[in-house]
Amino acid sequence: MLVLLDRDGVLNEERGDFVKNPGELVMIEGSAKAVADLNGAGHRVVLITNQSVVGRGIIPQDMLDRIHDALRTELAKEGGHLDEIYACTDPPWAATDRRKPGAGMLREAMSQFRSVADETPMIGDSLRDLQAAASAGCRRILVRTGNGAATQADGLAPDILPVAVYENLRGAVDMLLGNDP
Ligand SMILES: [Mg+2]
Questions:
Q1: Gap from CA of 177 to ligand 1 centroid (Å)
Q2: Which residue of the set 6, 37, 125, 129 is catalytic?
Q3: CA of 12 to the centre of ligand 1 (A)
Q4: Ligand 1 centre and the CA of 116: distance in Å?
Q5: Which of 9, 66, 100, 167 has its CB surrounded by the most CB atoms within 10 Å?
């Protein structure tokens, strides 16, 4: 199975003002181990992240690369890895279909890994993750970390349903791996 993951609010803590350097990357408890468990079960894990922090001119691309090196290091501490990272640096005022809620990156990942949309879950904490997943035909999973609790409280529109909701990535992964209590 191909599993698509949003970054901020799913793997690492959401900051209101963007992760701008490796020191601002704070992992959410249990997320790295959850990725490792997906890897260990033979699944592909791919990051699908909007990073307008580059397109807005706040940090350069090479800083984003360093942040992702740090993310890979944090995952490796638990034996986990990402099979690919898709990052869209478009600013919102010049967004292409790659920027979520566009489905571009999800479609690229499914093409790369030859995965069928309705067998491909997208796990995110924001409405635009769910919208992108619905647009691509992927399964929608909301985690309540990051913006997730607020996303749920705001109400989920009929056009993105069904949405499975879990407390965190650990809970979502347990469901995907059939470890649900
Ligand atoms: Mg997010």
A1: 22
A2: 6
A3: 9
A4: 23
A5: 100
pLDDT at residue 7, as a whole number: 98
Task: Based on the residue annotation, tell me whether 8 is a catalytic residue of this protein.
Answer: yes
Q: How far is the CA of 50 from the centre of ligand 1 (A)?
A: 8
What is the domain class of 2-176 according to CATH? Answer: alpha beta
Q: What average pLDDT values come out for the chain (181 residues) when binned by 10 residues?
A: 98 96 98 98 98 98 98 98 98 98 98 98 98 98 98 96 98 92 56
Please state the domain extents for the chain: 2-176
Q: Is 125 designated active site?
A: no
Ramachandran bin of 57, using left for φ above 0, alpha for ψ from -120 to 50, beta for the remaining angles: left
The first and second tokens of residue 99, run together, are 């920027």
pTM equals: 0.97
